[in-house]
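Lecture 7, part 2: worked example. A protein chain together with GLP.
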Amino acid sequence: MLKWEEYIMGKYKEVLFMKIIICANEQELDRKAAEELANHIRRNPDTVVGLATGGTPVGMYKQLIDMHKNEGLDFSRAITFNLDEYVGIPYDHPCSYHAYMNDNLFDHVNISRDNINIPDGLSESLEQACTEYEEKIKSVGGIDIQILGIGHNGHIGFNEPGTPFDSITSVVELTASTREANSRFFDSIDDVPTHAVSMGIKTIMHAKKIVLLAKGADKADAMAKALYGPVTTDVPASVLQLHPNVTVFVDEGAGSKFPTK
Ligand code: GLP
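Predicted complex, written out as C-alpha cells:
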C-alpha cells in the first residue's frame, strides 16, 4: 500500500514534500514545465506520460514542439494517456480533447499513433471502456509522469469536488461551474457536454511523478487551498499533498495567495 493510501485510511498523518516553483511569467512557466517533461523523455525514451488539456498546458506543448523541431526531442517511443474526454462529442469536433491533442501536440511531433491513448467518450459501453483504459495504463507499467492543470473548484482531470480519493477511470458529471468555465471553447454553454470520462484520483495518484501547472490570479484560491489547505475531497487537488513526488509550476498570479512566512 502506498503512503497516501495509508493516510486516507487514517494510518499515516504526515503531509509529504512538494516542490513549488513560482515563475515570473507564463512563458517561463511554459519553458520550465516543458523542460521537466523533456528531461524525463530524454532520460527514458519509453516514458509513459499522462497528459492534460485546457488552456494552461498549451504553451508547454508549443515549447515541446519547438524542442522536437530544433533540438531533436524524440517522442517516437513515448506512450501517452490523456486525463479525460467529453462524453458524446465526435473526435473530430474542434472542442473534443482528441482534436485538442492533435492540434496542440500530436500532429507536430514524431509520436507513434499506436502509443496515444485518450479516454473514449463515444463508446457504446462507456463503463467497459473505462475499465479497459485503467487496465491499459497498468499493462504498460503505470504512468511515469503526469501533467495536471487545476479547475477553479480544485478539480483535477474532471474529478469534481466530492469525488472519492480512491476513484478510478469512470464517467463523471460536470458541475455547472466547470461547464461555465469550459464554455469559452464552445459556441454556447448549451453545447458543453454534461458528462466526461476521466481518469480517477487514484489513477492519477499512482503516477510516479506529478507536475501540476496553474496560471493566472483566477486560479490563486484553488491553488492555495490545494497546496496549503486541509486534504479534503471538497478540493480534489488537495490529495496531491499526499503524493511523494509533485512539482508545481505557477506564475505569480496563481501563486499570489500562497501563505507568506
Ligand atoms: C478542464 C480539464 C482539466 C483542466 C482544467 C483547467 O476542465 N478537464 O484537465 O486542468 O479544466 O483548465 P484550464 O487550463 O483551461 O484552466
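The chain has a mean pLDDT of 94. The beta strands are 18-23, 48-51, 79-82, 84-86, 116-117, 145-148, 170-173, 195-198, 209-214, 246-251. Keep this in mind for problem set question 3.
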